[in-house]
Each structure stands twice: as C-alpha cells, then as structure tokens.
C-alpha cells in the first residue's frame, strides 16, 4: 500500500464548491477502495481578506515538498504570484511533481511560464483574456486537459471529470467507475468534450431552423449576415424565420443578432486590452460612433464608461486592461 501525497494550493477567490469537488472524489476513492491511500495537504497561497470565506488549509510557509501532485485552485484570476512562491513552484516542477490548475488556477501556472507549450483548458469566460496574455500557452475550450505532467480543468463540474481521469490513470477505470457511481455522476466525460451546453438547451428550444440560424450568427460576428442571407442559408423565408424567432425568443432575428454581438463586445472590453474601436469593428460595427451608440442603448453606458467602471471595481480588470489614450 503506497501513500500518495496530493497538495491543494488555494487562492482566496476559490469557491468552497471547487475545493469540495476535488477533495470529495479523492475521499470517495479511498472509501470504495481501501488500497488507495492519499495524504491530502491544504495550503493557502495568500492570506484571505477580512470577511472572506475561510477555506481549509495552513498559510504557505515557504516550502512545497513531498507532493506527487499539486493543484492550484482559484475562481478569479490572481493578480500575480509572489517571487518566493513562484520560485518554490518552479523548484517543485523541476523535482518531478505533476502540477495542475483548477478553474482560474491556470493563471498562476501561466504567469510563471509553467504552461508554455502545453495545452490548458481555460473557462470560456476567460478565453479572450488568457489567449492575449499568454500566447505561448495552447489554450483550449476543453473540459480538461492532461498534457504530459500538466493537468488543467476549466472549472465547475469539470473538476470531477479531471479527478476521475486521474483515478483511472493511476488505479484503473474500474475504480473511476465505482467513484462516479458513488457520486451519482451519470457518465464520465472525456476531457475534449465542449464546455458550453448544447445550443438548443441554451435557447430552450430544439427547433432545427432556430438552432441553425443562431449557429450562423455566432460564426459571423465580425461580418454580420443580413436576415435575408440567414433565411436563405437555413432554407426558410424571411417571414418564417422572423416568426420562429418571435415564437421562441420573443425577438426578431436582427435584434437577437445585435444583442449577441454586443454581449461579445462587452466580454472583449472586460477581458482584453484591445481598443474600443478594434472591438467594435471585430463585432461587426462599421464605426466607433455606431458601436458606442448601440452599446449605450443596450447597456445604459458607453463602452468607455463601462470599461472604466469595471476597472475601478475590479483589481484584476485594472491590471489586465491598460488605460486607453484619447
């Protein structure tokens, strides 16, 4: 019987659920198979702020030793990794430890260069920001990635999927199946499966023409199609397409398309350093004033006002989106 030491390095933003999911998979594995023994260690990467939820773990004491695997956990991208902690993590990797990032735990690994040249599963909310900040990392929209000695999961229930894959690799598929059964997990998902739920589930409808039309819109953000072009592509008349959208989404196609492009623009505003004009053009707006007017009508603030307000309320946005001139 061999004991494997697995560490969890936890940032203050970590939700209790993220840690609980990872821990529970390993606890259940020991319960259903007594030959599997884990020594779990919990360390706090930073001191929590006053009033924050208190997660388990001792403050990091300057050492990271004797772990066969170490998972970094965060649910909002940490601003930076301290020099001493960064050095300790790099030394741990050199010693042969397998390291992983759960949810926004991919950010500290990327900041230290420990994901350069590796695939990393990044939550769809952070895809634009992460790709811009860490071009040497192969960011994917997978549920999780296991690339050599790097493990990453995009967050949420994908943490369970990754840990079940770890159990299967280390102890066999039978144990992973037994744990998933104990946790009432319907099926063990593969890492390469998509993060976002199927489009028809998001829309609340399985109407095939509606699904086809929305997929076309999502694929043509920078150069929007006209309603007539969309109707032609999905083989219905314009009036029929408008009736379908009105029935299922209570909007005409052009309104839904505009909201789709504006929401994409807002995501880029908050997550990238691209200029407002660049973002407007990449979301299908012909000019800065056109973009600003449409944005203000929908969100109640101009793109610049919205970005500035988010900067002042979030230190992460402030650090990741440089101030614009003019």
UniProtKB/TrEMBL annotation:
<dbReference type="InterPro" id="IPR009057">
    <property type="entry name" value="Homeodomain-like_sf"/>
</dbReference>
<dbReference type="GO" id="GO:0043565">
    <property type="term" value="F:sequence-specific DNA binding"/>
</dbReference>
<dbReference type="InterPro" id="IPR020449">
    <property type="entry name" value="Tscrpt_reg_AraC-type_HTH"/>
</dbReference>
<protein>
    <submittedName>
        <fullName>GlxA family transcriptional regulator</fullName>
    </submittedName>
</protein>
<dbReference type="InterPro" id="IPR029062">
    <property type="entry name" value="Class_I_gatase-like"/>
</dbReference>
<keyword id="KW-0010">Activator</keyword>
<dbReference type="InterPro" id="IPR018062">
    <property type="entry name" value="HTH_AraC-typ_CS"/>
</dbReference>
<dbReference type="InterPro" id="IPR018060">
    <property type="entry name" value="HTH_AraC"/>
</dbReference>
<dbReference type="Pfam" id="PF12833">
    <property type="entry name" value="HTH_18"/>
</dbReference>
<keyword id="KW-0805">Transcription regulation</keyword>
<dbReference type="GO" id="GO:0009893">
    <property type="term" value="P:positive regulation of metabolic process"/>
</dbReference>
<keyword id="KW-0804">Transcription</keyword>
<dbReference type="GO" id="GO:0003700">
    <property type="term" value="F:DNA-binding transcription factor activity"/>
</dbReference>
<keyword id="KW-0238">DNA-binding</keyword>
């Amino acid at each position: 019987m061999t004991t494997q030491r697995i560490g969890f390095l936890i940032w203050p933003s970590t939700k209790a659920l993220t840690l609980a999911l990872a821990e529970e998979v390993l606890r259940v594995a020991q319960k259903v198979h007594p030959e599997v023994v884990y020594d779990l260690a919990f360390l706090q990467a930073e001191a929590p702020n006053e009033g924050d939820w208190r997660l388990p773990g001792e403050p990091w004491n300057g050492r990271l030793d004797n772990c066969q695997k170490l998972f970094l956990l965060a649910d909002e991208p940490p601003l930076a990794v301290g020099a001493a902690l960064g050095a300790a993590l790099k030394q741990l990797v050199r010693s042969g430890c397998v390291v992983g990032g759960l949810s926004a735990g991919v950010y500290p690994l990327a900041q230290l260069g420990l994901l350069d040249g590796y695939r990393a599963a990044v939550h769809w909310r952070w895809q634009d920001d992460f790709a811009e900040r860490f071009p040497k990392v192969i960011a994917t929209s997978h549920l999780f990635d296991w690339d050599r000695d790097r493990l990453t999961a995009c967050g949420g229930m994908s943490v369970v999927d990754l840990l079940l894959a770890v159990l299967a690799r280390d102890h066999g598929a039978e144990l992973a199946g037994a744990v998933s059964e104990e946790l009432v997990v319907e099926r063990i998902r593969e890492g390469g499966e998509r993060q976002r739920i199927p489009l028809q589930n998001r829309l609340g409808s399985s109407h095939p023409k509606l699904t086809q039309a929305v997929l076309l819109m999502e694929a043509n953000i920078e150069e929007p199609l006209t309603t007539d072009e969309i109707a032609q592509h999905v083989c219905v008349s314009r009036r029929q397409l408008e009736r379908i959208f009105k029935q299922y989404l209570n909007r005409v196609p052009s309104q839904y398309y505009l909201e789709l492009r504006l929401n994409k623009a807002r995501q880029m505003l908050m997550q990238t350093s691209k200029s407002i004009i660049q973002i407007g053009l990449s979301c299908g707006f012909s000019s800065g004033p056109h973009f600003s007017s449409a944005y203000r009508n929908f969100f109640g603030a101009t793109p610049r006002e919205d970005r500035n307000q988010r900067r002042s309320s979030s230190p992460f946005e402030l650090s990741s989106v440089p101030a614009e001139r003019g």
